[in-house]
Amino acid sequence: MLLSCQQCRQFDRIAIDDFGMRGIVLMENAGAACVREIFRRSKDGPTVLLCGGGNNGGDGFVMARHFQNANVPVHVILLAGPAKISGDAKTNFDVLRKMDTSMTRAESSWTANDFLTAFRSVSDHPLLVDAMLGTGAKGSLRDPYAAAVEASNQMSASRFAIDIPTGLDGDSGDCELAFKADVTCTFIARKTGFENPNANQWLGDVEVIDIGAPREIFDRFQIQP
After folding, report:
1. 150-162 per-residue burial string, b: 16 or more CB within 10 A, e: under 16
2. Could you say which of 6, 65, 127, 212 is the most buried, measured as most Cβ atoms within 10 Å of its Cβ?
């Protein structure tokens, strides 16, 4: 069963409003499960997390904490100013700051070369995690996101996308430029756009990640947990 991006957001809202789950619990479950999936597929190594200011970035902040707790060298590149990070994402961002996590703020003027320099300061062959933009993003990428994606696709690296590769339309599977993932760790269910053959070059392997939501919600959407 496939879900649209709107249905996935509705799924989260039902978990929060009807079942009383906290958004920050869903975010914690999502980020921790993505780290487990990465550990299952990839050797430990220097990791760069590209994080936006929304919930997708919040998942990345959770992941950074779990990587750091596992003694994996980790560096976070922020594509949104701290003032623009809010809600559950801000809670997890503030935890990272108290942990003295290595972070860099990507300026809006950054080019692909600036991102490449930042990546290579961590490792020539890092593990790259795309936690920039999620299912709510529409339209063509703008800088610094476009530059970050361009640079990521040029790196000799293992690339993991969280929920959806940044730049890919989850409903249609169309894009002009997207993060080229080796693995996409998507939440709840595969998105409708993943069935578009053109999406395959960006998605890599798709792994559906359990975020701990009640089974009854899956039943409402007629999908298997």
Report:
1. bbbbebebbbbbb
2. 127
Answer whether residue 145 is part of any domain. yes
Residue 219 CB coordination number (10 Å): 11
Give the model's pLDDT for residue 1: 81
Query: Would the pLDDT of 225 be above 90?
Result: no
- Which pLDDT value is given to residue 45? 86
CA 34 to CA 144: how far, in whole Å? 24
| Range list of H helices, 20-102 | 23-41, 55-69, 87-98
Q: How far is CA 118 from CA 25, 103, 107, 202, in A?
A: 31, 10, 12, 23
User: In which domain, by residue range, is 190 found?
Assistant: 5-219
- Copy the structure tokens of residue 122: 């961590």
CATH code of 147's domain: 3.40.50.10260
pLDDT tens figures, 117-163: 999 999 988 999 999 998 877 778 888 999 999 999 999 889 999 99
pLDDT (tens digit, 9 = 90+) per residue, 184-208? 999 999 999 999 999 999 999 999 9
16 lies in a domain? yes
How many domains would you assign to the chain? Answer: 1
Instruction: Output b/e per residue, 76-101; b: 16+ Cβ within 10 A.
Output: bbbbbeeeebeebbbbbbeebeeeeb
